[in-house]
Specification:
The structure is a single chain. This protein is an alpha/beta fold. It has an eight-stranded mixed sheet, sandwiched between helices. Helix 2 runs antiparallel to helix 13. It starts with a helix and ends in a 22-residue tail after the last strand. The longest helix has 48 residues. It has 23 helices and 21 strands. Among the domains are: 58 residues, no CATH class; 85 residues, no CATH class; 127 residues, no CATH class; 219 residues, Rossmann fold. 49% of the residues lie in helices and 17% in strands. It is elongated, with a radius of gyration of 54 Å.
């Protein structure tokens, strides 16, 4: 019902929203999707030998590849990588040109580029209007500055770099600056990296951008930065191995230097000295065995098989600073990993770092075990020689051969490490990325259609919702009766009928005529029917009083047409124009001015003299108000009024009384004791709600017999009776 009564508002609102959508389409820039495809080699394979194992032949170390598709996607969408792209392409500076009155962003077509050495706060709050006058001069907000050099401006220290020959024919542009973090986050929000297939190393990188060439440049630079990061990481991995080889070479070189020291004559020692040396060697062997057992415990930890409880004690007994530092770093990473969020990119990075540290621990264990084994073998050999010396007193030549074997072993190991160092250097110099660009960035389709459909639906829904909200707010602040339900909520007085405002009202206000059908006529018939069953004694409803709260509510229109309806039933009916302050019924019926009710009440006329027939009806009469008295209330309170109604009751079947509004004057209450039924007219969107409180008071006090309500102008907002009582009544506060 709300939509039907206010359908013009809904239509107007929807049309306005469609107009707004048209303006939106005109000013909205097209949005493009830029795509590129990148191949990640060996990023999904497991148990892949790393660069370190390949340097050592791949037989000693075989680790799981520390890279995965999820890790690489995390790197590609990282803040650090996008920050480098924004910085190198200068994406925090935007260039615009007016196209058909709309500022459109330009990128590759910008005639200049700006560089900021130091910016003031005003640089990020004001746009720069740049115009051109000569090849080496530009105007920034109407101030001339040279090009190709840093200059001090009110916005900071800037440099203007021409991208073409400048002249006064070049169209001015607008330059705006944004903070780099905001731009980086904005591009990351529009960046999407997804695998082409679930088990594939192909990645599709897409970016939403309004300027196609700018989007392609961003994706190209992003892929280049990713490849550079990959190469840097792989070089760092090999460089760490190279550093380890260099340390080992320095240790072997120092021992070779000790081998070159001339041998002393220690083969002619006494027997007791040899026995003492053998006891010392036994203690050294016992210590070496303890260290070898400690190495097994650390090796179990490096292989993730436990052994963490006594790790710090064992490491101290080995007295190797490199191993101790590596163990401390591993324990620190484990603690950090346990405190972090599992399953995140940061947790994956910590896992890979811990894995690499354990690999280095494993290599250190091999080095220390080799040293300890070598020392143990040397001591065992020395003990053997001592025992043989005690028994057989070996010659100096035999002992010298045993000593000279050690430098030969060291020379072989030194040559081997030199070879591996060269291989590591060549690996660093020849490192290339394992990623390859399959499809270069390209602009595929305009992707604004989905957005436009969503905006269209949103505006269409708004066009329907806004009138509802407007009507709801209007009703909330409206103190007038607008619906039947409001009357039923505010009063318990029964509603006898509803009358809609008809467009067929004639100059004499008579809608109900013989052989003429109308909506209002049918509603008058329904009111006439309900009138026959109203009250406790419906057969006595001969005298009908019409009143209302205010003027202009249509009681005169309803009263004269209800009288016509009763007359057409063959019942003799008369309408009394009892409004002696501003009578209008006789004017609407085009009756001549003659004696009326007031003349009878003052005793100047008889009943027959004040009655006039209404043209077009056989049984329909009217008694006009007559002369306007100075004291209507006193006149209606005289003894002549009941006598008038008594005489009319003898001659007429129905008496319809059109009285003044009860909310303005008390005339109706003086007539009320002599009537059978009272019809209180309430007009939609006109009668104040507080009048219902007065209706309740009248009903509860039985001031009007058989009080009923008639709703007028249902579903109509026009006020056609606003001038009916203008100037005669004033509304006194209740």
């Amino acid at each position: 019902m709300l939509a039907l009564r206010n359908w013009p508002w809904f239509v107007l609102s929807v049309l306005i929203m469609f107009a707004i959508f048209g303006v939106y389409l005109h000013y909205q820039p097209l949005v493009y999707k830029v795509r590129a495809t990148l191949l990640l080699k060996n990023k999904v394979q497991k148990n892949e030998a790393t660069n370190i194992s390949s340097i050592f032949g791949g037989s000693q170390i075989n680790t799981t590849n520390i890279k995965s598709i999820e890790d690489e996607i995390g790197i590609l969408t990282s803040y650090t990588l996008m920050d480098r792209v924004v910085k190198r392409l200068g994406l925090d500076i935007h260039y615009y040109r007016s196209v058909d009155g709309i500022q459109r962003e330009i990128y590759a077509n910008s005639p200049i580029r700006l560089e900021v050495e130091k910016g003031e706060s005003t640089l990020y709050t004001n746009d720069l209007i740049v115009s051109f006058s000569a090849s080496n001069k530009v105007l920034i907000n109407n101030r001339i500055y040279p090009t190709n050099q840093f200059v001090n401006t009110e916005y900071g220290r800037l440099r203007i770099i021409p991208q073409r020959v400048l002249s006064d024919t070049v169209q001015p542009i607008t330059v705006s600056f944004s903070s780099r973090p905001r731009i980086v986050n904005a591009y990351l929000a529009r960046l999407e990296v997804v695998p082409v297939l679930k088990q594939s190393g192909l990645l599709t990188i897409s970016l939403i951008e309004a300027v196609p060439d700018k989007g392609e440049a961003i994706l190209k630079q992003l892929i280049n930065e990713y490849i550079k990061e990959d190469i840097t990481y792989r070089k760092q991995e090999v460089s760490n191995l190279l550093s380890l080889i260099e340390d080992r070479l320095e240790l072997i070189a120092a021992r070779k230097h000790n081998d070159e020291i001339p041998l002393n004559n220690s083969f002619d020692k006494p027997e007791d000295v040899l026995l003492s040396e053998q006891e010392v060697n036994a203690q050294l062997l016992d210590e070496i065995e303890k260290k070898l057992n400690g190495l097994k415990l650390i090796e179990r930890y490096a292989q993730n098989k436990g052994g963490k409880a006594r790790l710090d004690q064992v490491a101290l007994t080995l007295s190797d600073p490199v191993l101790i530092n590596q163990l401390e770093e591993a324990l620190h990473l484990e603690t950090k990993q346990n405190k972090g969020n599992h399953g995140t990119i940061q947790d994956s990075a910590l896992y890979q770092q811990l894995k690499y540290i354990k690999y280095r621990i494993y290599k250190s264990l091999q080095r220390i075990r080799k040293q300890l084994t070598q020392s143990r073998n040397e001591i065992i050999g020395q003990n053997r020689r001592t025992r043989e010396g005690i028994k057989v007193k070996p010659t100096k030549e035999t002992a010298l051969v045993s000593v000279l074997n050690q430098p030969a072993i060291r020379n072989t190991l030194y040559s081997y490490l030199l070879q591996k160092r060269e291989e590591a250097v060549m690996s660093v110099l020849s490192t290339t990325s394992e990623s390859r660009i399959i499809d270069m960035p390209r602009t595929e389709v305009v992707s604004s259609a989905t957005v436009n459909v969503m905006v269209f639906i949103l505006l269409g829904c708004s066009g329907l919702v806004l009138p509802i909200l407007f009507i709801g707010v209007k009703n909330a602040f409206n103190n007038r009766i607008t619906q039947r339900t409001e009357v039923e909520e505010l009063t318990h007085v029964p509603i006898l009928g509803e009358i809609s405002l008809s467009q067929q009202i004639t100059v004499d206000n008579l809608v109900f005529r013989p052989r003429i059908q109308s909506v209002m006529g049918e509603q008058i018939r329904a009111l006439r029917t309900n009138l026959q069953f109203a009250g406790n004694e419906p057969h006595r409803n001969k005298v009908i009083l019409f009143t209302s709260c205010l003027s202009g509510e249509g009681k005169s229109l309803i009263s004269i047409n209800l009288g016509a309806s009763l007359a057409l039933l063959g019942r003799k009916t008369i309408v009394l124009e009892m409004d002696m302050r501003r009578p209008r019924l006789h004017k609407g019926l085009h009756l001549e001015k003659r004696n009326g009710v007031s003349h009878y009440l003052i005793g100047e006329s008889t009943v027959d003299e004040i009655i006039q027939p209404i043209a077009g009806y056989n049984n329909y009469f009217i008694a006009t108000a007559g002369l306007l008295p100075l004291n209507p209330a006193e006149l209606l309170g005289s003894e002549r009024l009941p006598k008038l109604l008594h005489e009319l009751n003898k001659e007429f079947d129905h008496i319809v009384i059109d009285s003044p509004p009860i909310g303005l004057v008390t005339d109706s209450q003086l007539i009320a004791p002599f009537v059978d039924i009272t019809l209180f007219v309430v007009r939609h969107n006109y009668t104040p709600k507080h009048c219902m409180k007065m209706v309740n008071n009248l009903h509860n006090g039985n001031r009007f017999p058989n009080l009923n309500i008639v709703l007028n102008a249902v579903g109509e907002g026009d006020i056609r009776y606003s001038n009916y009582y203008d100037g005669d009544y004033t509304l006194s506060p209740a």
